[in-house]
Design a protein that fits this description.
The protein has 14 helices and 15 strands. With about 400 residues, the protein is of the alpha/beta class. The protein is globular.
Length: about 400
């Protein structure tokens, strides 16, 4: 029979966070192997529970959640999000500027589909969260990756951003706090990015899903709070700050100069209506989440579990010869570098697979985040300290043998 082929639109789409190495890990689990998973930022898997008051609000309102709601989301949930934007000092946000989706992931795809014609370009950080690149490609656009510089704490390289702007450039994406590096962007840099967007009439898409997961008294500024004459779309949700990844409840907020974007916003409304609405039950938790006790801060204090686990993993990894790593100021990840002189890796997906097969530790290779060289990998520090210690010990053991095999 004639083979049924996937769409050519998927030829350049990559999402290695759930890619071939993960498939091999699943096979190994089915064979009875225990895999230490450092690949996905899924808090519930590691004992980080949804706050009880959020869960109870969802349960109490289940009887009210069986029908469709407004395509943009429940009134009370959007009202709470509007108040949160005011706390973040994002000006002039109305209820109609807020779109609730099935996680930020759905909204990233929706906002790209509403914007891009074939050949349009979007500036995306390198490394990135790969959904952004995939969403641009699926929407017919071209992802142009600008460099984030490890030597400067993984901050975006402004000269590289400027150099990659063409007449086809429509937007710039920032991920702040950053996944996979844990970098947090200072206001001076954000203002420079705004100025670039202003000069070239670009939309700024700001992925801020980790905006409360901050360490050592770091503070986060929403870029949309710093200007009103540029169009911003800001993304956030329940998945990380409130450990409710499975609820699939995120939101996108349109702000700034909206007058010249009426047609684009009409496109957003159309796509939001076409999928009828987002998951209704989880929306009943949004008001309680944003207005209630912010238990995430208990986890990010010096004695908190997340900060302790960050410190354990960072220390153990950087103690390995030839491994260096920026100490993250935010989020849930480490992005260590392997010195190419000591670890001459040509294919980092193969490297990740070998680590899995030999040590039963699952990571994601750096090129899975559209990083340009096979010299990085991402580690999630959500597992408890004992499991992190075991995992880092196995990584150290693997790298020791790697050095011996390659005579370095």
């Amino acid at each position: 029979m004639r083979p049924i082929l996937k769409s050519r639109k998927l030829m350049n789409v990559c999402y290695d966070i759930r890619g071939p190495v993960l498939e091999r890990a699943r096979q190994m689990e089915e064979e009875g192997h225990h895999i230490i998973k450092l690949n996905i930022g899924n808090p519930a898997t590691f004992g980080f529970d949804v706050p009880e008051e959020i869960l109870q609000d969802v349960i109490r309102n289940l009887s009210e959640a069986s029908g469709y709601c407004d395509s943009k989301g429940l009134f009370a949930a959007r009202k709470a999000i509007m108040h949160y934007t005011q706390e973040k000092q994002i000006k002039n946000v109305q209820l109609d500027d807020i779109f609730i989706g099935n996680g930020v992931s759905e909204l990233v795809v929706l906002t790209m589909q509403a914007l891009l014609d074939n050949g349009d370009e979007v500036l995306i950080p390198m490394p990135d969260y790969p959904l952004w690149t995939a969403a641009v490609v699926l929407s017919g656009g071209m992802a142009k990756h600008y460099l984030c510089d490890e030597e400067s704490g993984w901050l975006p390289n402004l000269d590289d951003i400027r150099a990659k702007i063409t007449p086809k450039t429509r937007a710039i994406v920032i991920i702040n706090p950053n996944n996979p590096t844990g970098a947090l962007y200072p206001n001076e840099l954000l203002l420079e990015i705004i100025e670039i967007a202003r000069q070239h009439q670009l939309i700024i898409y700001a992925d801020e899903i980790y905006d409360k997961i901050l360490y050592e008294q770091a503070t986060h500024t929403s870029i949309a709070s710093l200007a009103e004459d540029v169009l911003f779309v800001t993304f956030n949700g329940l998945s990380k700050n409130y450990r409710a990844a499975g609820f699939r409840s995120g939101w996108a907020v349109v702000s700034g100069e909206k007058g010249h974007a009426r047609d684009y916003i009409a496109g957003l409304n159309m796509l939001a209506s076409m999928r009828l609405c987002a998951n209704v039950p989880s929306q009943f938790g949004i008001q309680t989440a944003l207005g209630g006790y912010q238990s995430i801060y208990d986890l990010t204090l010096p004695a908190g579990r997340l900060m302790r686990q960050r410190d354990v993993a960072w220390k153990l990894l950087t103690d390995i010869p030839g491994v260096t790593c920026f100490k993250p100021q935010s989020a849930l990840y480490l992005f260590p570098r392997l010195d190419p002189e000591i670890y001459p890796i040509e294919d980092d997906q193969k490297f990740a697979l070998e680590l899995l097969l030999e040590e039963k530790v699952l990571i994601v290779q750096g090129t899975g985040f559209n990083w340009m060289k096979p010299d990085h990998f991402r580690v999630v520090f959500l597992p408890n300290a004992d499991d992190l210690t075991e995992a880092c010990g196995r990584i150290a053991h693997f790298l020791q043998h790697y050095r011996k095999r390659h005579g370095t």
